[in-house]
Amino acid sequence: MTNETRICLLGFGEVGQTLAADLRERGFENLVAWDLKFAARDGDLAKRARAAAVEIADSAQQAATGASLVLSAVTAAQAVAAAQSFAAHLGAGAFFVDLNSASPSAKQQAQTVIDGGSGRYVEAVIMAPIAPKRIASPILLGGAHAHEFAALARELGFSGVDVFSDRVGQASAAKMCRSVIIKGLESLLTESLLSARHYGVEEAVIESLRNLLPGHDWRALARYMISRSLLHGVRRAEEMREVALTVGESGLSPWMSSACAERQQWAAQFREHAAEESLEAMLDRLLAAAAEK
What we know:
CATH superfamily of the largest domain: NAD(P)-binding Rossmann-like Domain
Mean pLDDT: 96
């Protein structure tokens, strides 16, 4: 793959913007993006794409045409629809890398769609927040074309890729089961510490966490994890619905995952309070805002 190779970013949210910046830094300048929010040409997302020197496509067809690589990073609920919008327009042998946080069954549906055209489907799941390591984040790959893509991915800067399985769905199952814990912990901390702050006992709760699970700054961790729910609650709620589907397909009732989706959705309405620097200030703002709802 040369620096002139056309790379498409399907979805221009946090992941898409991060990858666009890192790919450009590595000399890949022929970048095009497609996002449904580009319909508002003067909107914030379109402005960010222009600022990043990324071409804004007018349609899925235009974005897919001529692209050797498509990196799909849309919301969980749109993962299959995104594949459907691109499948017929991909050139022969073009990689369609599905980075979306979706259930194994959704990934398998997307694979079927892409395999019905000329593209090569690769399951991919990011196993950590994208911000710290960016393009070098740990990514598990799956599917028949995973090994082929892994070699190319490392050339592009995806140094954290690892082929997990030749079967589509295994990598996503690992991601979904991890999210039961990670997104669940965000929701538990939100619910626990908001209630504790109301009763004036949050310090006792944090201290008990330090004693039970030492080695962490639980005040800093709680502030960070709660803020992630505030900033990304809508997207996380969609993912947790996919997690609930994954758990349900295993034969278990997804009680915890379904409840987590509700708490994440609730948190999203208080996005403006994520910038509070201290945990206590954040909790106070949330309690006040929730009382007004």
